[in-house]
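Re: Re: ligand-bound prediction request (bumping)

Still looking for help on this. To restate: I need the protein modeled with HQG bound, output as structure tokens. Inputs repeated here so nobody has to scroll up.
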Amino acid sequence: MNALSREQTKTSRRISMVLRHRPESAGLTLDANGWVPVADLLAALGLTRAQLDAIVENNDKSRFAVARRDDGTDWIRASQGHSRRVAIDLDLPPADPPAILYHGTPAANAESIRRDGLRPRSRHHVHLSKDLPTALAVGRRRSSDVAVFEIDTAAMVTAGHVFHLSDNGVWLTSTVPPGYLSLKRTNP
Ligand code: HQG
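Reply:
Sorry for the wait, this slipped through. Here it is.
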């Protein structure tokens, strides 16, 4: 994987915006599972197939998935992170999570999370990380002052909570009630 250039990063962010949050801003409609024809996305954003492929292949979190259908057409979607305002269902099967997962967030959110648990807010799911470094990186997107929670996923599974694993390795669930959360570290 090569690092994206500044121009490619900008285009990648635009693709994320279109595929996760505002398809209509590019004149696109996602299908029920969040896919659009690659040809339509290229036309809408003025990209060549080679430009898109470079971004898909080198995206730091493999955010986009491309799949070929039986009729030979290629379709693309964001693997996770959609806004609730975009009415799609990723249609991922339930998956068995590791016994512990992590969630990184600005430390300013910690008190409210301890009280109310983790909520998906504007997205379809709560997003959980497989390890501490990943959770720290997620929290640092928004603040240098990060809190990381450890989630007792084993107890959640026992209680009937359902988990999904996105194509790019992010664990998804509906909510995490406060009883399954413990503050792992703050201000790392
Ligand atoms: C917080 C990135 C206070 C939550 C990442 C988070 C991820 C609460 C924020 C993906 C709360 C929502 C998603 C409560 C939740 N009180 N704050 N009760 N419940 N929050 O961006 O997990 O780079 O929707 O802690 O890697 O930060 O975009 O979720 O801080 O996978 O591909 O509310 O986005 O991927 O923020 O990030 P987000 P997230 P990409």
